[in-house]
Amino acid sequence: MARSLHVRLDEASSAALDVVRGGGMTGSEAVRTALREAATRRRVRSAIREEAQRVAADEADRAEMRIIREQMAELAPPSSD
User: Fold this and answer.
1) How far apart are CA 62 and CA 68, in angstroms?
2) CB-based contact 28:38 (threshold 8 Å)
3) Within-domain flag for 80
4) Per-residue pLDDT for the chain (81 aa), expressed as one digit of tens each?
5) 57 in a domain, yes or no?
């Protein structure tokens, strides 16, 4: 079932709606599109955050990265300080 929503837009939100409507969408289409896009971005950010937390908590992975950093440091040219 469709759901109706009444919104009061401030100046910045009204300008943003104009940008989204630039493709010839109606106000309703633009709002639905913007909501779907915002939800997708939030889901992606949440998934990235969860993955970063999982990797940071993996002690074996952190130890392997430490070894790689040490090996890369050995290969690096001497500092010219």
Assistant:
1) 10
2) no
3) no
4) 688 989 999 999 999 999 999 889 999 999 999 999 999 999 999 999 999 999 889 999 999 999 999 999 999 988 886
5) yes
Domain carrying residue 52: 11-75
Amino acid, single-letter form, for residue 63: A
Its pTM stands at 0.64
Backbone φ and ψ of 67, nearest 5°? -65, -45
Q: Is residue 4 part of a domain?
A: no
Distance in angstroms (rounded) separating the CA atoms of residues 17 and 35: 11
Into how many domains does the chain fold?
1
Q: At which residue do the structure tokens 């130890």 appear? A: 63
Q: Which two tokens stand for residue 45?
A: 């950010």
Distance CA 50, CA 44 (A): 10
